[in-house]
Amino acid sequence: MYKESILNVVHQIFVFCSMIFLIVVISGLIIFILAIAFSVSQGIVESRSPSTVGNLAEDVVLDCRFLSNSDNEQFNDVSITWLKDALRGVVYEYKNKAAQLQGQNTQFQNRAQLFSDAISMGNASLLLRNVKLEDEGVYRCSVNAPKVSGTTSVNLRVAAFSAPTFTRRADGSLFAQANKWFPQPGVSWLSQSGQLLNSSTQFINNTAGIMRVVSVLEGPVKEDDTYTCLIQNSLVKAIAEATVTGKIVMLTEKSRTYFIFSAASTKVSCLQLMFTVILVLSAIQ
Asked: Locate the Ig-like domain: which residues (predicted)?
């Protein structure tokens, strides 16, 4: 009798645990199915450039796109809100087919706007004019539209960068000057074959902390040879080529100054720089 009672209790516990297990499994399946259905019905909000580098005092676009599951759908009723982490107020808000800027942070007054003609096609990107150092940070784009709802983020880093100009000096050396860089970059020169060359570089600061880069490739340089000047900081790498023709230095026709952007603050070795330039040179030949 006592043994049967124990077996009965064990059986009841087993049944109870089994029921709890089934409830948990079924609940999980329901949540999973609802999550899939919800995500399908809500479409996609995304950024093709989640890490963006803005050039100081110039304009930058923070990319944000939204898509439904219906191809070529145009959106008529769209709400878009741009926020910046750790900042009160909105960067920009759009509702009822018009800007709603009552709650806009003063930092962005008369500097932020959307591409209003492209919103119906799924473009919620933000144009930020005259980029400042204090604009750096994480921005969040939230979109609500028929069949679409979601948020994506864009990490904006701010630097100053410009392409160098070249001059051949009387002593046969090659002089390069770039008027706007921040943070302070490193400068390297490479021969046409990718060999690292001897050079000297100066950085001249202005009152705002932005620096002018002045670099000299020790001569004499050879006529009809192409030399590559690399200017790079943690955010931007500029790759510029100069071909020496007589007493004139010209940018080669098939190459310009290439800017390569990175959101990582890591230093690149000379070997990595040489490898990058060789890849660029091979690609444009």
From this structure: 58-157
